[in-house]
């Protein structure tokens, strides 16, 4: 994905959180006030995955917040505050959080996500064995399933290729069986090794 010129210039063509220069893309910051047009940052793949809770938090990686929290860019300050709160169990993060100041408007924006009240729980799609599922993975059914509203019976051992994750529910994926897209519970699948 090509970065917009204004974001490229502002970010110096690097991740605005950790300064990485590879795997950059635009991350739209959730729960931004409607009046804010500058609600995007440039983030690397690793930062983005952890911001979106698709990967477990790596406290070592987020040591970069000691620098990014002092950014003059309000949206970077907001994301830094949210991440420091998710990592507040780490002594260094609690110290940084104590030093950080946001004006009332930015603090309201930062708190709008509710992340300051949550811990670092990551919401991942896991198969029956606890393996992390990703878009495009291939899985095998571990149980025969009757498909509601259809005469289709998906047999145990059926291979389902190119799955899609259901965004709002970590216990569900979508896959195509016999030409029909169905919702499958993750507890009834096993990720197939490549």
Describe the structure.
The protein has 2 domains: 5-117, no CATH class; 139-191, SH3 Domains (SH3 type barrels). By secondary structure, it is of the alpha+beta class. 25% of the residues lie in helices and 18% in strands. Strand 8 (172-177) and strand 9 (180-185) form a beta hairpin. This is PhnA domain-containing protein. Residues 6-52 form the PhnA protein N-terminal proteobacterial domain. It comes from Chitinophaga pollutisoli.
What are the key terms here?
single chain, 194 residues, alpha+beta, SH3 type barrels, 2 domains, three-stranded antiparallel β-sheet, 6 helices, 25% helix
Q: Strands, helices and their partners?
A:
Layout: H1 5-11, E1 25-28, E2 40-43, H2 45-51, H3 65-68, H4 74-86, H5 91-99, H6 104-111, E3 139-141, E4 145-146, E5 153-154, E6 159-160, E7 164-165, E8 172-177, E9 180-185, E10 189-191
Antiparallel strand pairs: 1-2, 3-6, 3-10, 4-5, 7-8, 8-9
Helix pairs in contact: 4-6
Organism: Chitinophaga pollutisoli
InterPro entries: PhnaA_N_proteobac, YjdM_C
Domain PhnA protein N-terminal proteobacterial: 6-52
